[in-house]
Amino acid sequence: MKDKNCGYCMRGELLEKFGIFICDLSVSSLILFKEQSKRGRCIVAYKDHVSEIVDLSKEERDAFMNDVVRAANAIHKAFNPDKLNYGAYGDTGCHLHIHLCPKYNGGDEWGGTFTMNPGKVYLSDDEYKEMIEKIKAAL
Questions:
Q1: Using CA of residue 96, residue 102, residue 103, residue 108, what is the dihedral sign?
Q2: How high is the pLDDT of residue 112?
Q3: Contact 122, 35 (CB under 8 A)
Q4: Is 123 exposed, middle or buried (0-12, 13-18, 19+ CB in 10 A)?
Q5: Domain housing 56
Q6: Does 43 fall in a domain?
Q7: In this structure, which of 2, 8, 80, 86 has its CB flanked by the most CB atoms within 10 Å?
Q8: pLDDT at residue 117 in the model
């Protein structure tokens, strides 16, 4: 099931406002978050337009969480963060997704909750491409 107003469902222009599609995982999509003040920040979005993790069967939930772990491992390998924060929000989007937000000791917001979209760091197309290649190689 897809929602025609959802960037995670429709990709294209809606997704490009905030993210870049990296690849499909077993039951989800891996997306690079365009705002990169936390180098390597990504989103794992479930394949279907469901709002809550409790809307999934045990098998679907396990597969989704396995995708989250696979993406987290790739981020650790590619960018060596000191900590990875996980955020599951969606008050307005209502599409099940988890933000994977690398944190670096002594860096921006270390020791606190990450800002959803601080709007500080945007990269060139080549820099995004290089990051995506690193993530794919680490998957």
A1: negative
A2: 81
A3: yes
A4: middle
A5: 7-138
A6: yes
A7: 8
A8: 82
Is there a domain that residue 134 lies in? Answer: yes
pLDDT band of residue 114 (cuts 50, 70, 90) is confident
The pLDDT confidence band at residue 14, using thresholds 50, 70 and 90, is: very high
> How many domains is the chain built from?
1
Residues in CB range of 124: below 8 A, 6 or more apart:
none
pLDDT for res 125:
97
In a domain, residue 131? The reply is yes
Q: Is the pLDDT of residue 80 over 80?
A: yes
**Residue from 112, 111, 90, 109 nearest 99 by CA:** 90
Spatial separation of the C-alpha atoms in residues 128 and 139, rounded to whole Å: 17
Which CATH number is 45's domain given? 3.30.428.10
**Of 40, 13, 18, 44, which is closest to residue 31 (Cα–Cα)?**
44
C-beta of residue 87 within 8 angstroms of C-beta of residue 66: no
Tell me if the pTM is above 0.90.
yes
2 in a structural domain: no
